[in-house]
Write a structure and sequence with these properties.
Blueprint lengths: L18 E12 L2 E12 L3 E5 L6 H7 L8 E6 L2 E3 L1 E4 L2 E4 L2 H8 L2 E4 L11 H11 L5 H14 L15 H13 L5 E5 L7 H16 L4 E4 L3 H7 L2 E6 L2 E6 L1 H6 L4 H9 L5
Parallel strand pairs: 3-10, 3-11, 8-9, 9-10
Antiparallel strand pairs: 1-2, 1-4, 4-5, 6-7, 11-12
Helix pairs in contact: 3-4, 3-5, 4-5, 5-6
Length: about 270
């Protein structure tokens, strides 16, 4: 089994950068339903890839396969040039132990639709608990970095607040800070604003735009087309478990090549 190429033939300005995430031929079924049908993707360091498409198209399932929350039925995931979720033995891939998989997962931060904060911990402790208990960082260092990250997401004044005392947008920003505290190589966002009231969506998207500007490698599943236009280096359109089309934001949103993409963008009001 050869290692993934470290160059992309896409011609984008990111193509000369190392590949952080590579998916090869990813297949996934649930019972008789074939959800993913051989998806391939390369994400380069510092690149922001946004995945759009109708509900049920396999977007969230694909995102979850990237860190083996949903284990692919076929295909391979590579992170920073290393096979993810498996190791090679006698020329064949063998599944990793749960402990080894957990170690690999530290490379990939993930933010979900629901915030999944620890209700008995304040914002500061939610952010520092991973570095403290998983990475083994000292208490003072973990707290200092947590304060830095809370400032990054605009919540310096909420470090002693508990999740129940925070708005949905504030909780999601704490969740982003918590994922960043593990110093991941890349971040995955699974429709991070879908559970928020409309007035709270912008505050979360602004944090994500700031991360993009700072060069964070990200794969984002979202229905926020205008955000995708601003943040993405590439947009992928998924339907029926396949990538139908991909391109730069202006190309895909303004001049999609496929009728299925055009139909979806008309339905969500992104084009006429």
């Amino acid at each position: 089994m050869s290692q993934p190429a470290q160059q992309s033939a896409s011609g984008s300005e990111n193509a000369t950068r190392p590949v952080v995430i590579e998916a090869r031929g990813i297949e996934k079924s649930f019972a008789s339903l074939r959800v993913l049908k051989g998806i391939n993707l390369k994400v380069h360091r510092g690149e922001v890839v946004v995945i759009i498409g109708p509900s049920g198209s396999g977007k969230s399932t694909f995102l979850r396969t990237l860190n083996h929350l949903d284990v692919p039925d076929a295909g391979e995931i590579w992170i920073n040039g290393a096979l993810f979720g498996a190791t090679m033995r006698d020329g064949k891939a063998a599944a990793l132990s749960d402990a080894m998989l957990a170690t690999q997962r530290r490379q990939i931060g993930m933010v979900f639709q629901q915030f999944n904060l620890f209700g008995h911990m304040n914002a500061l402790d939610n952010v520092r608990c991973g570095p403290l208990h998983v990475l083994g960082n000292g208490s003072n260092a973990a707290a200092e970095d947590a304060r830095r990250l809370l400032a990054l997401v605009g919540l310096s004044d909420k470090e002693v607040s508990y999740p129940a005392e925070l708005s949905g947008g504030q909780q999601q920003r704490v969740a982003i800070a918590r994922a960043l505290a593990m110093k991941p190589a890349a971040m995955l966002f699974d429709e991070p604003t879908s559970a928020l009231d409309p007035e709270m969506v912008g505050e979360v998207l602004n944090v994500m735009l700031d991360l993009a500007a700072k060069g964070m490698t990200m794969v984002i599943v979202t229905h926020e087309i205008q955000f995708a236009r601003k943040a993405a280096d590439r947009i992928l359109y998924m339907e029926d478990g396949m990538i139908v089309e991909e391109g730069r934001p202006a190309e895909l949103v303004d001049s999609p090549k496929h009728e299925r993409t055009r139909r979806f963008l008309r339905l969500v009001g992104a084009t006429h």
